[in-house]
Each structure stands twice: as C-alpha cells, then as structure tokens.
Amino acid sequence: MKKWLSYLIVLLLGLWVLASLRPPAPRNGFDYANFGKLPALLNGRIQPLDSVSRNCLLQIRSKPSVRLKNGETLLPSEWLAEVLFNPSKADDREIFVVDHLELLGLLKLGEGKQLVSFDQLKPHFAEIEKQAQRAQQVEPARRTTFEKQVVKLYSGLVVFQKLKNSLYPEEYGSLQTAITDLKANLGSGLEAFRAKESNKEFNQENLNKLVQTLQKWEMASQMAYPRLILVKELKQGNSQWLSHGEVVNQIIHNESLNLPRAIDAYIAMNVAYQKNDPNGFNKAVLDYQQWLATNFPEQFSKSKSESFFNNFAPFAKAREIYLLAFLFACISLFNLTEWLRKSSFNILALAFIIHTFGIIYRMTLEGRPPVTNLYSSAVFVGWTIALIGLIVERAYPYGISVLVAAVGGFTTQIIAHYLSLTGDTMEVLRAVLDTNFWLATHVVTIALGYGAVYVAGLFAIVYILLGVFTKRLTKEIASLLNRVVYGVMCFAILFSFLGTVLGGIWADQSWGRFWGWDPKENGALIIVLWTAIFLHCRWGKLVSERGLMNLAIFGNIVTSWSWFGVNMLGVGLHSYGFMDTAVFWLIVFIASQLAIIGLGSLPLRFWKSHPEQAYSQTPNKSPQTE
Amino acid sequence: MWLDKLINALTSIRLTVLCLALAIVLVFLGTLAQVDKGIFIVQKEFFQSIIVISDLRILNHKVPIIFPGGYLIGLILIINLIAAHFKRFGFHLQKIGLLLTHFGILVLLVGQILIDHLHIESSIRLVEGESKNYSESYTKCELAFVKISGADFDIVVSIPESYLYKGNVIRHPQMPYEIRINEYYENSQIERLSGQSNERGAATLGIGASLRVIPLPPITTTDRRNAPSAIIELIGNNVPKGTWLVSFFLDDGQTFNVGNEQWQMFLRPERYYKPYYITLLDFTHEKYPGTDIPKNFSSRVKLTNPQTKEEREVLIYMNNPLRYGGETYYQGSFDPGDDRVSILQVVKNPAWTTPYIACALVGFGMALHFILKLSAFVKEQKKR
After folding, report:
1. Are residues A190 and A71 both part of a single domain?
2. What are the DSSP calls for A61-97, one per residue?
3. CA A176: distance to chain centroid?
4. Closest approach of chain B CAs to the CA of A179, in angstroms?
5. Cβ separation of B39 and A571 shorter than 8 Å?
C-alpha cells in the first residue's frame, strides 16, 4: 500500500509537469502565447518574440515579467504587443523600478521602492542622461550604488525607447499609419525629386514632405532593437533580417511599394490590436505563422522551440521538485520508513529527468555543449550533483544521498535562477569561445569537477551534522560516508585536473600561452591542489576521519571561490561581470561552511554520536584499504 | 643519522602536503595581488621566484608578504616526488597508474619552468598585401641605427633595452661613432612645445628640438606597454654635435650624416628577424548579424621561405594557429580603426608539447589507478 503511495506521488507530480506544458491561456481572447512564437533577430541570434520581450524586460527591470501596481501581471509577449502596437499605452505602464534613495530624491519620487512609468520619468530625462553619462565614465567595478542604479535606469529607458521604434517610427502610433503616410508621400515626392534632378519645375512641398518622412524612418531605424522583418535576399535567395529602415530604403531604391510579407502581417496584427479584435489578431498571427512555416521553416521552428522552452521552464520545475525530494528525504532520515525514502528517491529521479531533458533541449536549441556561460554552469553543476547522488543512493540506500542530491540540485538551480536575471542566457559566443570542441571538453570537465567536490563536501556535512546533533552516526553510517567522500574526491581530482590542463591546452591553442596565472586558472588550480591534499592526507593517514570530513567541507569554500569568487575580483580575462549581491551570499556561504567545520572540530564528548566514542580515542582505522 | 632524517623528511608525504598547502596559499595571494599589481608583476614576484617579497593591499592597508615563491615550492615538490618514488614506492603493477600520474606531474612542473624561460612572445602587424620577415616584442624596445646603403640590404645595429641607461656609452664595430645615453625614460609621453620663449626642447638636434618629454611611471598591466624615450648624443669625428631625442612615439627615423654615410635612428619595439616572410593576403572579421560581437577572425597569409623554396598559403583563425619554424602564429587581434589590419601573435616556445604529454599521462594514470582500486573494492564487497 505504501509502496503504491510512493509511485502515486511521482505520478501526480508528473501530471503537474505535463499540465504546465500547455501554453498560457489567451488574455481577453488575444492569443499572446502564439504571437510570442514569431521569430526575430536580436543580439546576433534568432529568438522568439517571447524571448525578445523577456530579455528586454530583464534589462529594464531585472525581472522577465511585468507586475502592475494593482497586482495584475502581463505576459512578456502581451507587454511586447502593447509596446509595438500601442506605444502610448505602454508609456503609461509603471514598469521602471527605482529604489535607490538618492535616485528617488533626484527624481523627486517620494520614499521607498517605486514603480514608475516612462511618462512619469519624461520630465527627468535630461537629468538622468546627464548623471548616467557621467557614471558611465567610471569603470563598472568602481561605480557607487547610485552610479550603478542611474546607469541601469538609463539603459532601461534606452532599451524601451529602442523597442518602441523597432517596427516603425514611434510618433506614428501604429504601423498602418506609418505605412499610409509613406505611401502618400512617396509617389508625389519621388515625382518632385525626378523633376528637380532633370532641372524641370517641381513641387518643393511634396519633396520636403518625402524628405521629412524618410528622416523619421531613418531616425527610428537607427534606434530599432530587434530586427523583425525576415526576407529572402533577391540574388542568392539567402534569408536576411532587415530593420524597417532598410525596407524603406529598398522601396525608394526599387521605386516599388511591394512590402515584405512581414510588414503586411504586422499591419494586420496592429490593426486588429487597436480595434480590440482578438479574432482578427489571432488570425493575422496564424496566417503569418503559416507563411513562415512554408518559407522559413528553419527559423520559425527554432523560435517556436525556444518559446516552448521558455514556457515549460524545466529548470524551475526541477528546482521545485528537488525541494520536495529534500523534504521527503529529511523526514525519512529520522522516521526511517522505507516508503518515505523510496518516495524521496523517486521524486529526485523525476526532478533529475526533467533537469536532464532541459539540458538536452537547450543543447539542441543552441547547438552547443551544455555549459556555455556562468548560468549554464550552475545548471550543469546541479545536474552533476544530482547524478552522483542518485548513483550513490542506488548503491547505498540510506536516504542520505537523496538528501545531498536534492540540496545540491535545489541550491544550484536557485543560483541559476538569479544568474538568469542578468541577461540573455543563450547569448552568442565571442570569437575565442566559439568552439564546441573546447567547450565540450574543458568547460564540461571543469563543471563535473565542481560538482564532485560539492558532493563530497555535502556528504561530509551530513557526517558532522548527524554526529553532533543526532544519535544516528553509527559505525556503519560513518564508514559509509567516509568511503563515499573518498570515492567522490577521486572523481573530483580526475575531472578537476583534466579540466584545468585542458583549459591550459585551449589557451595554448588560441593564444600560445598554456598557463598565465589568470584568476580563473588560479581558482581551478587551487581546487586541484586541495583535492590532492585531501587524498594525500588520507593515503598518508595524516588526519583522522573527522579531519578528512572537515577537509572535504573546506573543498566547498575552495570551489565556490574558484567558481564565483574570482569573478568578483574584476580582473583577468575570464571576468563575467561584477555581481554585488553575489559577494554577500558568497561570504554567508563561506561563513556557514566554516561554522560547520568548527562543529566538526568539537571534541568528541560534545558529539551526540560517533563510532569512536564507544571504543577508544585511538586514531580511526579506516575500513577502506589503501 | 642526520642524513637518514633528511632523507625521511624529503621523501615524506607530510612534505608533499605541506608543499601543496603552501602552493594553495601562494596561488591565492597571487590572485589577490593581481587586483592592484596587474598580472605581469605578480607572475614575476609570486610564481617565477624563489622567495616572494612583496605586499598586498587589504582594505587600504599595505600588508608585507614574505613567502616561499613558486620556484621554491615547485622544486621541493619535484625533489619530494622523485625521492619518494625511489624510497617508498618501489614498483608494483598495482601502482602503475600512480606512477604514470606522478611522472605526468613531473613533466608538467619541469615543462612549466622551461616554458617560463624559453617562451618568447611577439606580434606582427600586417596590412593586407604587406610582407614582413620580423615580429615585434610586446614589452621590450631597441635603439636601432640603420646605415642606408642603397643596395638591396641595409646595415642595422640594434641595441637592446638593457643597454639603455643614463650615462652608458655604447660602441659597435659596425658604427663609426659612439653613442652616449644622456637620459632614459622607461615610460614617457612627448608633447609639442607650447611656443613660449623660455621653453627649451628636449634635444638640440632633429625633431627633439621642438618637443618635450614627460616621464611617466612604468606600466604594470599586460594590456598596455611602456613607451620609452631617450636623449642621446653621438660621439666621434664628423658627427653632428648636439643631443637627439629618440622616442617610441617617433615612427619615422631621424636621419643624420657621418661623413658621406647616411644613417637613421629609431627607438622601436625589439624585432625578431626570421629567415622567411609572412604576407597577409586577406583578413576577415566576421560579426554576428546585427551586432558588433565578433564571431570569427581569420587571416589568409602566404608563407615564403627563400632558403627552402617553400611558398604556400595558410589560413590562420581563432583556435587554429600556424606552427612553422619553431614558432606558432595565432590570430591575435585586429585594429578597430582599420579593417584591413590583422595582428598575429607569434610565440616561440620549444617546450610547448610538455603540457600535452603531461595531461595524457596524468589523465590516463589517474583513471587507471582509480579503476584498479574500484575493481579491487568491488571484489572485496562481493566476498563479504
């Protein structure tokens, strides 16, 4: 009966996951989820409008969503539709976050965190720009909080402004008005122009009107952010992404008013949107999708897949399930019922499957190995921890490994979540990094090494907490933990060493310097040296079992330093950017690890249980043969 | 008695652990020190030294550091490793993995010391169509005197930076005059005189008469280089009497006559001449569409070696260098102002293969060792 229960829980969780595969429901009849699947070019890669809106929102407000003052939320693509099709309404949305005291004062906004709209900020643009331009002169790592905030607000305003001009010059208010104006002025204007060229009498007013119109498009085109217009190049038939300005240039050049299909499609959407006609809007989106599917199947399928991935959010799902597995494992550890342990294992396995699915999906989407940036390294390190935990739990079913795997999986996915708020997580890779071979070898082995050191450290933490606070650290459990920590450390040194040397070889291949004592390299080296110390201490029987556990926990500090700490130094070739709040959390983490090491160093009489208490105080005899 | 003790100490695993621990502290301190000092100085002071005598800024306080340097720790580790293998390990088939691993570490350590001393980096800057048979140092400069002979070749006398210090007098059989260094500025800037009458130029002859030198502190980071300047004087018969300003900033050589010979002088990046020519045929700088993010750089070059009659085209691009004549040519960087300019990084490193060998040995050795241990462990478990 209880065995049956453990499967039922997993089944229910599975259903919950499957249910979330459905796209979000239409709002007032408008199918924004479908609109969000349309492809665009931004940051050098094809992405769905859904990602475009999320990435822009991240730059504007550090969150990929819009939560209004009344608690209502807008879907990212719903917000984007408003920005593109009804910019004056979007100007009124309170999407900008101002919470720095001096900045609030500067903008005369009252106290506390404030959500403000573009319109509300309008009177202060000159001031914001002045302050931001001064702050931008300062090196990012040396900026004060005020300077950082003002730069952030300013660049958010710029992104918003650019986005509004991405389909047509914003002042027209809608694409159809803009195109109608263009059409109205084009014929007469060109006629006047030709007459002037051939020294005939010409209508100056018509010519001026055309010039003014073209200037508007030109200005907007320079601002345009995502490129939305996908066409086939005439000569070779390659697909090409155009900004609206380039389209207008082609129109002038060819003197033909043949608009690209994308423009027609966006006009239809815009008209329906402004008429508040959901059916018309949905039909326009669908028609355009059908056209894309026949003419640009590759681009459309890529953007559809990414939009699915955004909606499904497998890593966020896995994170929640890891948390559940952790709770079950905790209870099972004290309650000692097999069905709870079994349930926690099954739940963990489900989280792991979703996690794996997410990683593979992301790899196919990007055409890259699993780790390409700091964000994906967090995703992958978590996966490694969960994988090792699952394997160890299969071999030694005590529930402890589920606990370790769940903690590791959950925390790393939290870290990944916060890292994802810093910008596009699938950004294109700069020249030197654009090599799947080295990403697949060096970067992946390094991440495996990180994962293994953390697993060893987590098992060691379990050892100490069980011993100090509970009666559960029996001889059997202690020797098991000791062996597991040792075994995992062996993996850790293998992967860390290989990863580090492979990194050196990559550097030798790309700029002829095997080792440069760069901070990131040094961090990796410290991990290798630390694992070597652990292993030699064990082989040479230099420290007791508890000492080894403390060494393994210190490995957590060493790895975190190498993974995140060195990035905070703000020097070196590998810097990912400065992370302020991360510094605080790193310090908290290090302090917590030191506290546990302190507990581990308490004399045995303070421990609630330890195998050596029962016998004598002689140094332990490790059950593991050398 | 004391010898036994020494041998025991040298072969002990405690010494290994001590060295590893010291290495960790050293690497950590060296990483922190980079924030202020820059990578270049830290490499010299911390890692390529016997003893570190330096300081570290912690919360705006200078904390002095005296610590064993990278070479000392590395050397002790090498001795410890070799000694331990002779004294303690012996040879067992079971331990072959360990042996391979340790041997690989040895190759890595020794290789790294070799690389530190043998490795020379320089660069070639080429405009499309241009040929060069020399590369230029990133850090060092030379004072060069060129005798214009009118024939196919010129006579070049190049004086390395180490000879350039105040008061030094330099002679060379090829030069019919001596050179005295009146002033040498390791890093500097030059400026045109403002035109006020009381101002005097840095030198009396040549362009230096209308310029002045502003000494600057030496550069410590790797992304910029020193721009030296010097005031020199020629000594001998038939030479122009007066002082000259030579500077990194003066690209065009200054010409002077000694009797009927015509000479030119330059203070320029040190050149490494090669017996072959590199010609840049085409440079491409690919960007991701709609952005300025570089996707790839590549240089199509022609390699011409008159001695071996070699003449072939090579494509050098990111992560794909050209290895030729004991040197490796990498796609280094580009000139943001001119898209026809490619900058190739040239590295001479006779020990470049050591990390590759070490990596293979250690990777294989460790994997073997752990597999052997794991299978022994599993067997034992089954017996129980």
Report:
1. yes
2. HSSSSEE-TTS-EE-HHHHHHHHHH-HHHHHTS--EE
3. 36
4. 24
5. yes
B44 at A interface, C-beta within 8 A: no
Range A271-290 average pLDDT = 94
Residues A62 and A206 in one domain: yes
**Partners of B145 in beta bridges:** B157, B265
**B104 at A interface, C-beta within 8 A:** no
Point out the domain boundary residue: A379, A396, A428: A428
Instruction: List the 350-369 stretch of B: residues with Cβ below 8 A of A.
Output: 352, 355-356, 358-359, 362-363, 366-367
Kindly state whether B252 is in contact with chain A, defined as any CB-CB distance less than 8 angstroms. no
Residues A413, A548, single domain; the answer is no
Give the pLDDT band of residue A626 (cuts 50, 70, 90).
very low
User: Distance of CA A159 to CAs A58, A162, A398, A625, B79, Å?
Assistant: 10, 5, 53, 63, 60
User: Complex ipTM, two decimals?
Assistant: 0.86
Decide: helix, strand or coil at residue B364.
helix
Residue with tokens 């004991």: B326
Q: What is the dihedral of CA A70, A75, A80, A82, to 10 degrees?
A: -50
Q: At what angle do helices A400-420 and A444-469 cross, to 10 degrees?
A: 130
- Mind telling me how many Å the CA of B359 is from chain A's nearest CA? 6
Do A560 and A589 share a structural domain? yes
Q: Do A543 and A404 reside in the same domain of the chain?
A: no
Mark which residues 111-150 of A lie under 8 Å from B by CB: none
* Backbone φ and ψ of A434, nearest 5°: -80, 60
Range of the domain at A206: 31-85+165-299
Which residues are CB-neighbours of A557 under 8 A, at least 6 positions away? A589, A590, A593, A594
Examine the domain organization and report whether A381 and A407 are in the same domain. Answer: yes
Instruction: Determine the Cα–Cα distance for residues B55 and A184; give it in Å rounded to an integer.
Output: 73
Distance from CA of A389 to the nearest CA of B (A): 18
Same domain, residue pair A355 and A211:
no
Task: Find where tokens 């599917």 sit.
Answer: A293
Using an 8 Å Cβ cutoff, are A399 and A429 in contact? Answer: no
**How is residue B47 written in tokens?**
């890692």
Nearest CB among A43, A504, A558 relative to B355 is that of: A504
Q: How far is CA B332 from CA A484, B91, B121, B122, B335, in A?
A: 46, 47, 11, 10, 10
- Give A 398-427 residues with CB within 8 A of chain B: none
Q: What does the alpha-carbon distance between residue A250 and residue B218 come to, in Å, rounded to a whole number?
A: 54
Residue A107 within a domain: no
Q: What does the pLDDT average to over B75-82? A: 93
Interface membership of B308 toward A (CB under 8 Å): no
How many cross-chain Cβ pairs, A to B, lie less than 8 Å apart? Answer: 155
Q: What is the mean pLDDT of residues A311-324?
A: 94
At residue B87, what is the residue type? K
In this structure, the number of other CB atoms found within 10 A of the CB of residue A585 comes to 15
DSSP assignment of B71-89 equals HHHHHHHHHHHHHHIIIII
* Contact yes or no for A610/A464 (Cβ under 8 A): no
pLDDT at position A432 over 90: no
Range among A235-239, A455-459, B225-229, B330-334 with highest mean pLDDT value: A455-459
Nearest to A487 by CA among A520, A462, A452: A452
Domain boundary among A381, A397, A428: A428
Interface test with A, best of B14, B24, B138, B352 (most A CBs within 10 A): B24
**In terms of domains, do A468 and A501 share one?**
yes
pLDDT digits (tens, 9 = 90+) for A77-91: 999 999 999 999 999
- Classify residue A378: in a domain, yes or no: yes
**What is the rounded distance in angstroms from the CA atom of residue A513 to the CA atom of residue A557?**
28
Name the token pair of B181. 């260094």
Selected residue with higher pLDDT from B223 and A62: A62
Has residue A438 been placed in a domain?
Answer: no
In a domain, A138, yes or no: no
In chain A, how many domains are there? 3
pTM above 0.80, yes or no: yes
